[in-house]
Amino acid sequence: MRVAIAADHGGFPLKGRLAQVLRDSGHEVVDLGTHSTEPVDYPDYARALGRAILDGQAERGVLICGSGAGAAIAANKMRGIRAALAHDTYTAHQMVEHDDVNVCCLGARVVGAELAAEIVSAFLPARFTGEERHVRRLGKVLEMEKEGK
Ligand code: RB5
């Protein structure tokens, strides 16, 4: 799978390790920066990653900031992006199976590198079940997205 990865300076320390985990698992990685711990603004990286998915350059995204919160908030402002913060492996796969999440957000100041690696390894193989109740609920989320309020 083609996977986009991006981080702000808070997420940068984790990005290289996760990109390597993805490559080792056979994924093609689109690295959208940042490339140092020099302070940057997380919405810029959320926007770049969201656009990569919406433009078809990647199927899924991994977005990292210090807490994962700003990353998730910003990414979810983009129509068609469903981003969720996952700091455990159950959430990492269930959020795809039930909620069709396409961006996994992580906080590099919250989770260690090995747990983060397990989280992305649970996220990427997961697939939306397409079960009626999940489709119905997702439809309601998409209605809210369309209404914008
Ligand atoms: C940067 O200091 C930090 O605010 C950012 O990485 C993120 O945690 C925001 O939610």
Main attributes?
149 residues, alpha/beta, Ribose 5-phosphate Isomerase B, Chain: A, 5-stranded parallel sheet, 5 strands, binds D-ribose
Chain-wise SSE layout:
Elements lengths: L1 E6 L4 H13 L3 E4 L10 H13 L5 E6 L3 H7 L7 E3 L3 H9 L5 E5 L5 H11 L8 H16 L2
Parallel strand pairs: 1-2, 1-3, 3-5, 4-5
Helix pairs in contact: 1-5, 2-3, 4-5
Bound molecules: D-ribose.
How does this model look, in words?
This protein is of the alpha/beta class and 149 residues long. It has one domain (2-147): 3-Layer(aba) Sandwich (Ribose 5-phosphate Isomerase B, Chain: A), CATH 3.40.1400. 46% of the residues lie in helices and 16% in strands. It has helices at 12-24, 42-54, 69-75, 89-97, 113-123, 132-147; strands at 2-7, 28-31, 60-65, 83-85, 103-107. Strands 2-1-3-5-4 form a five-stranded parallel β-sheet, with helices on both faces. Helix 1 (12-24) packs across helix 5, helix 2 packs across helix 3 and helix 4 runs parallel beside helix 5. It is globular and about 40 Å long. The site of D-ribose has 8 residues, from helix 3.
